[in-house]
Design goal:
Its EC number is 3.1.26.5. By secondary structure, the protein is α+β, with helices and mostly antiparallel strands. The chain contains 3 helices and 4 strands, in the order H-E-E-E-H-E-H. Helix 2 runs parallel beside helix 3. The termini are far apart.
Length: about 120
């Protein structure tokens, strides 16, 4: 018997999968096709002209005051996007924080992120 792991799609997070410019963010914010809500997070979704999905994050100091917490949220969003990107169509997705995430556990934040990605995958 061989001990090779089962083959899965290559999951990586490249620069081409990120929204980088203010103009790219503005396109999504100005004319989103969908707005997906969770209790603390919200995502704006719009179809793009690229061959792959892209993700951006607008996480403000007002909603998440510490850099440690902002970076944690960003890492979790990037990780879930990296894992689920092969199942998404060519969409631009921008995440924002609606309410303070103070007091939420990592598991609860991850669940909210996953719920948004599930809604995107459905349609």
């Amino acid at each position: 018997m061989s001990n090779t792991p089962p083959t899965t799609p290559h999951a990586c997070f490249t620069k081409e999968q990120r929204l980088l410019t203010p103009a790219a963010f503005r396109e999504v914010f100005d004319a989103p096709e969908r707005k997906l809500h969770q209790s603390h997070l919200m995502a704006f979704v719009r179809t793009n002209t690229h061959q792959q999905p892209r993700v951006g994050m607008a996480i403000t100091k007002r909603k998440v005051p510490t850099a440690v917490a902002r970076n944690l949220i960003k890492r979790q969003i990037r990780e879930q996007f990296r894992v689920k990107a092969f199942g998404l169509e060519n969409k631009d997705i921008v995440f924002i924080v609606k309410n303070s995430v103070k007091g939420l556990s990592n598991k609860e934040i991850k669940t909210e992120i996953n719920n948004i990605f599930k809604k995107i995958e459905k349609k």
